[in-house]
């Protein structure tokens, strides 16, 4: 199932692009450790194209088509480290997660300008929703706090817990 972004339009995409450009200008664009050398070279341009006029599904398919991910990654275990296969949905997690983060940042900027609040909504149906994700549905958030949180916590969990981790299926909408 595809991710639904309730307020995705040309204005939102323009704000997404501005947020993307901001991250690039301060060398803070998230660069997943799961990307291989070619992926690190190509990812930002593909993400930019997805933000401009494509979808996270397109981005995920390009990551696979162009073979931009490593096959294995180092993982810590109780006894040290081991090499583990990259999850089969890693391309989707990366594409959806980063597209969603820029979408949320854009909506925060728009909500700030329009003096509105944003609320948490389900953007994608997941087979087994996490309880913590279900608890966030319908909650409202101060857009300036969320925007600052997402700008500061690139590629990691945010202080406010939005979005609440990979594969949560949650996003936001302007209320």
What's the gyration radius in Å?
Answer: 16 Å
**N-to-C SSE series?**
HHHEEHEHEHE
| Count of alpha/pi helices | 6
- Global structural class: alpha+beta
Mean pLDDT, to the nearest integer, reads: 90
| Head-to-tail CA distance between termini | 25 Å
Give the proportion of residues in helices.
40-55%
Strand residues, percent: 5-15%
- How many DSSP-defined strands? 5
Count structural domains.
1
The biggest sheet amounts to: 3 strands, antiparallel
Order of strands, widest sheet:
4-3-5
Bulk shape: globular
Low-confidence stretches: none
Report on the structure:
The protein has 175 residues and is of the alpha+beta class. It has one domain (10-174). It is 48% helix and 14% strand. The chain has 6 helices and 5 strands; from the N terminus they run αααββαβαβαβ. It has helices at 10-25, 37-53, 56-65, 90-114, 131-136, 143-152; strands spanning 72-77, 80-85, 118-122, 140-141, 170-174. A 3-stranded antiparallel sheet has the order 4-3-5. A two-stranded antiparallel ribbon has the order 1-2. Strand 1 and strand 2 (80-85) form a beta hairpin. The longest helix is centred in the middle third of the chain and has 25 residues, at 90-114. The model has no long low-confidence stretch (mean pLDDT 90).
